[in-house]
């Protein structure tokens, strides 16, 4: 069963001291305390005292109502504070459900640096008069301002725990020059010159500057000199933390005038050298840019074009072997021509999310070219090794082919985007004429016979409404002289349009897609 306490400050004696009791609880079994960092977010960091205790395992625990804890601190200021932790319910058993002693803790006494804390705790109701008084006590000493947490407390910061004077000590012939950074906490500082353990010579400095310099006479003293700076801050006054600086090597100044002239000469020399180098580099760069302006422009735009690749959507009927024909063709376009290829089998998840019509419409918009593949003679070996591995993909590809042809018919009617469509076949002699007649108005290429013209077709520049953008087949380097074929230069004839339009209309009626 769970037990908890409610703790609150209690400055006076406990009310239980005013009466006698027939039964009183036993003493605490043990008492512990430690410093923990305050997790409450403030601009300062500090410690709190975490006090924990456990109860004795005997029947007197039924009489226990509260535990009182008092803390006395002896530091810069003496302080006394008590809290009363009342138990929310009467104890019905001597141990917890796990057969362990009842344990409790309280966190809340703030901690000051370098302070002795005496902690005293006892159970309530207390022992009666003339009876043995039972209690537990312990003591703790808090860390000083050098502690990694305490140095960020408000008290330590006000005593200069975060002050870093960055002291430099330089000895000339008969004096020591001390430079240090002052603190915003005070303006008065005392500087001591120490030779071994002798620190009798000192000087007081008062300044409002953020960085100050002080010269101290040292006579014929050795080079084993240290400087101690004692600040005067309102919080700690004359007992503030000291900072020490050691002697460093410096250049002797035999003549202030000569030293000034020498310094000015060095600075002027450095400035002139820097100006000369800057002018030479600028002239060289301008000369190079003027002589290589054309090359630089070509290189820049060539590299920019390499990042714009042609996107090709490949459409194929169910008669085309997917593994041996479609994938091989796609690999050729990607590896040899650096073309981004779009195939429905590679985007099944997107097709399932959007639906085939919306997916195909979106791909048609982003694609630069749409290729319809013609079926060739398919061997029995291809049927057995390929189609049995792709299930109902033949039906899906046939459906996608019909949808793509329907989009083509819409573009044919609206006379838009017709430049995107291409027909590709891999066998000029044995190619089956399975494509709809409407596609005959599209450029047709036989691979690999027309490979040069085919790749050149893909690399044609496309003009847009707002300016021009060029997409190139950057990976194609043809060593064969390209001669345009009849199919490449084919235009849209009037009788072809009539036949194609009629076939498209009949296809729409049969499919009911548009």
TrEMBL record:
Keywords: Cell membrane, Glycoprotein, Membrane, Receptor, Signal, Transmembrane, Transmembrane helix. It holds the Pfam family SEFIR. Its main location: membrane. The chain crosses the membrane at residues 264-288. GO terms for molecular function: interleukin-17 receptor activity. Residues 309-456 form the SEFIR domain. It is found in: Cell membrane. It is a single-pass type I membrane protein. The keyword Cell membrane applies. GO terms for cellular component: plasma membrane. Signal peptide: none annotated. This is Interleukin-17 receptor B isoform A. The lineage of its organism: Eukaryota, Metazoa, Chordata, Craniata, Vertebrata.
């Amino acid at each position: 069963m769970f037990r908890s306490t409610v703790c609150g400050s209690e400055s006076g004696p406990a009310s239980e001291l005013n009466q006698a009791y027939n039964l009183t609880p036993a003493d605490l079994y043990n008492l512990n305390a430690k410093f923990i960092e305050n997790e409450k977010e403030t601009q300062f960091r500090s410690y709190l005292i975490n006090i924990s205790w456990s109860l004795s395992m005997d029947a007197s625990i039924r009489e226990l109502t509260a535990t009182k804890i008092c803390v006395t601190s002896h530091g810069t200021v003496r302080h006394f504070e008590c809290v009363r932790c009342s138990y929310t319910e009467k104890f019905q058993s001597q141990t917890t459900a796990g057969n362990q002693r009842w344990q409790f803790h309280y966190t809340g006494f703030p901690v000051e640096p370098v302070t002795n804390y005496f902690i005293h705790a006892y159970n309530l109701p207390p022992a009666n008069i003339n009876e043995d008084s039972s209690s537990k006590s312990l003591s703790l000493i808090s860390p000083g301002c050098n502690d990694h947490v305490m140095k960020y407390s408000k008290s330590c910061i006000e005593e200069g725990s975060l002050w870093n004077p960055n002291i430099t000590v330089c000895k000339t012939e008969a004096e020591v020059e001390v430079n240090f950074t002052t603190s915003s906490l005070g303006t008065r500082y005392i500087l001591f010159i120490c030779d071994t353990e002798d620190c009798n010579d000192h000087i007081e400095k008062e300044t409002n500057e953020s960085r100050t310099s002080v010269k101290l006479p040292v006579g014929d003293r050795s080079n084993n000199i240290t400087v101690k700076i004692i600040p005067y801050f309102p919080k700690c006054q004359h007992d503030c933390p000291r900072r020490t600086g050691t002697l460093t090597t410096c250049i002797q100044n035999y003549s202030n005038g000569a030293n000034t002239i020498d310094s000015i000469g060095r600075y002027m020399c450095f400035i002139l050298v820097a100006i000369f180098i800057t002018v030479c580099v600028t002239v060289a760069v301008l000369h190079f840019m003027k002589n290589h302006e054309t090359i630089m422009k070509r290189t820049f735009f060539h590299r920019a074009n390499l990042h714009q690749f042609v996107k090709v959507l490949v459409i194929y009927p169910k008669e085309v072997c997917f593994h041996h024909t479609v994938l091989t063709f796609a690999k050729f376009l990607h590896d040899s021509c650096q073309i981004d290829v779009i195939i429905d089998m590679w985007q099944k998840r997107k097709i399932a999310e959007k639906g085939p019509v919306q997916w195909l419409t979106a791909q048609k918009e982003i694609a630069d070219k749409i290729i319809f593949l013609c079926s060739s003679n398919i061997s029995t070996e291809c049927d057995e090794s390929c189609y049995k591995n792709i299930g109902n993909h033949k039906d899906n590809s046939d459906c996608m082919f019909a949808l793509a042809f329907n989009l083509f018919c819409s573009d044919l009617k609206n006379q838009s985007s017709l430049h995107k469509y291409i027909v590709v076949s891999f066998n000029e002699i044995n190619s089956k004429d399975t494509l709809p007649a409407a596609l005959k108005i599209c450029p047709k290429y036989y691979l690999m016979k027309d490979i040069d013209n085919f790749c050149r077709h893909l690399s044609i520049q496309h003009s847009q409404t707002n300016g021009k953008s060029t997409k190139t087949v950057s990976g194609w380097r043809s060593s064969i002289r390209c001669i345009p074929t009849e199919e490449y230069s084919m235009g849209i004839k009037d009788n072809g349009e009539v036949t194609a339009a009629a076939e498209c209309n009949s296809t729409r009626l049969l499919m009911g897609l548009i």
